[in-house]
Specification:
Blueprint: E1 15-19, H1 26-42, E2 47-51, E3 80-84, H2 96-101, E4 104-109, E5 120-123, H3 130-136, H4 145-158, H5 169-179, H6 185-194, H7 198-209, E6 212-214, E7 219-224, H8 226-232, H9 242-247, E8 254-262, E9 265-272, H10 278-284, E10 288-289, E11 293-299, H11 302-319
Parallel strand pairs: 1-2, 1-3, 3-4, 4-5, 7-8
Antiparallel strand pairs: 6-7, 8-9, 9-11, 10-11
Helix pairs in contact: 1-3, 1-4, 3-4, 4-5, 4-6
Bound molecules: adenosine monophosphate (AMP) and manganese (II) ion (MN) (2 copies).
Length: about 325
């Protein structure tokens, strides 16, 4: 039985604002555009705005991706503001102002670290993706081809193409129902997940080459510095997949990937295989995420950041 349905939050609602997290990934874009498309196609009397920072070029085939608003310049107060795939309000970026001024708010998410940031919260930590959560709050017969493309893309990205342990029987059943809408599922996987531009491959190769193993090969870390962004003319969207490749190194239990956001400031991505709960480590440093994939922002030298994380890893290994 369906526990929640989006239509129950739309009574007397004329304006909806929506957004995902800063540095939008596949699930963030998929869940946002999936719900946006569903609302536009089934609730045409409601005016909907979707806010996201710029998205990867490969996601632009999705319907309405050209309608995404990238700035928070306009002052607007929405009847309902919906956040998708956002685990904490500091992940809303500039769009937080719409969240704060809206008459009602709804958080749709799957992060274990999310304690409920909105007035209404639909959070399933055991679901693969925010896109999977979105699917379960829609009327199945009203999910059309365009909505299906977006939600499938989101699920593909957050499950690493159905291979991470967050993939469940329900995930596969929903993916099957989305495929039945006639979407080009193989192209979505190839063109948005596996395909890399030449420079994306270059930065991947360079980062792997410079990676360092420690703790008897159980941990691996690497870093992309600001000069490299300039040299390769890349954005953070071009770094997707690097930490996953580090994680699958034989013998590695925990992968740590950093990129420099400002002088002595880093975005940290953590991934683990079996024994380390990286969500705990990220939460300890003020971030969040899932047991096997989490992140946070850190200040200091690379040496300090790695040292601090190592201490937390060691604590967990000792607890066992
Ligand atoms: P990433 O390493 O950026 O791909 O993120 C891995 C997971 O951790 C995603 O589910 C993110 O939403 C979450 N995450 C990453 N960075 C943060 C942060 N600073 N605060 C809270 N959650 C984060
Ligand atoms: Mn995400
Ligand atoms: Mn997600």
């Amino acid at each position: 039985m369906q526990e929640y349905n989006i239509k129950n939050y739309l009574e007397n609602v004329k304006t909806v604002g929506m957004c995902g997290h800063i540095h939008p990934d596949g699930d963030c874009v998929g869940s946002c555009l999936g719900l946006y498309t569903y609302l536009k196609h089934n609730f045409s009397e409601i005016s909907v705005d979707l806010y996201l920072q710029p998205i990867a070029d490969s996601f632009h085939f999705l319907k309405y991706s050209d309608e995404i608003i990238h700035t928070a310049d306009e002052d607007k107060e929405y009847d309902l503001f919906i956040t998708l795939d956002v685990s904490a309000d500091d992940r809303l970026g500039d769009f937080v102002k719409y969240f704060q001024t809206a008459k009602n708010t709804l958080c749709i998410d799957h992060h274990i670290s999310n304690l409920g940031i909105a007035k209404n919260n639909i959070i399933y930590p055991d679901y693969s993706s925010a896109s999977e959560v979105v699917y379960t709050i829609l009327d199945e017969d009203k999910v059309d081809y365009d909505t299906a493309n977006a939600l499938y893309l989101g699920i593909v990205h957050d499950t690493g193409v159905f291979k991470y342990p967050n993939t469940s029987r329900q995930t596969m059943e929903i993916a099957g129902k989305l495929i039945a809408k006639g979407i080009p599922f193989n192209e979505i996987i190839d063109n948005t997940f596996y395909e890399k531009t030449y420079v994306q491959n270059q930065i991947l190769g360079r980062t792997l080459m410079e990676s360092v193993l420690f703790y008897d090969g159980m941990c691996i870390f690497s870093v992309v510095r600001r000069e490299e962004f300039e040299f390769y003319n890349i954005t953070t969207n071009d770094l997707d997949g690097i930490v996953e490749q580090m994680r699958v190194t034989k013998g590695v239990e925990c992968a740590i990937f950093l990129y420099e956001t400002a002088e002595l400031e880093y975005k940290v991505s953590l991934r683990s295989k079996k024994n380390i709960d990286v969500s705990k480590i990220a939460s300890y440093f003020g971030g969040g995420g899932h047991m096997r994939a989490a992140g946070f922002n850190a200040k200091g030298t690379v040496y300090d950041v790695i040292n601090n994380i190592s201490e937390q890893i060691e604590l967990q290994l000792k607890e066992e």
